[in-house]
Amino acid sequence: MIRWLLRIxxxxxxxxxxxxxxxxxTLTQGQGYQKLAVQQPVSPRDKIVVTEFFWYNCPHxxxxxxxxxxxxxxxxxxxxxxxxxxxxxxxxxxxxxxYYALKALGKVNQLQGAIFDAIHQQHILLMTSRQMADWxxxxxxxxxxFLSAFNxxxxxxxxxxxxxxxxxxxxxxxxxxxxxxRYTVSASNPQxxxxxxxxxxxxxxxxxxxxxxxSGSKH
Length: 219
Description:
Elements: H1 2-10, E1 28-29, E2 32-35, E3 48-54, H2 59-73, E4 79-85, H3 93-104, H4 108-120, H5 129-137, H6 143-150, H7 153-168, E5 176-179, E6 183-186, H8 198-215
Parallel strand pairs: 1-2, 3-4
Antiparallel strand pairs: 2-6, 3-5, 5-6
């Protein structure tokens, strides 16, 4: 837990600027990104998949959210963004289910930023299903529909899959971005003057993966 908190705190040392694809510096493994020992499967297989690992209570995930959304809107058509909520402790599993319940209802894009604002700006507790149901109801989502999705088998399986992905991707700090199940980048990686942001590094890795896919290489 202490190691994880230190990694969270280290994100405060890094500015979350939206990195453009042009002008992104060349990075090396261990200097801005890490390569997973075991490549993880991604879907859809014909796209480059960027996976964001986040935690609603993380202030740095909240700070990155509007920047990530702006960055995601500029991604080319061959790139998709997937979000994975983490639960480093059992009491945060309900927040994983909050995300997947809203995803099942088609409300993530509408409410993702608002959830971060509620927790970090308005200091609203969103820890239990009752608190969450009351909050989403105030934002135009049927409480009954939310609780039905929240308690569904599908959402429970989604939360378990997310926890397994956290283990498979060796995630011990957030926010972390993974690219194509091959590489991860986070503010806790070694910093260099040429690595100005997590998003800039992710942009570089997208280009790297695209080149690898074109050549048939995985290196």
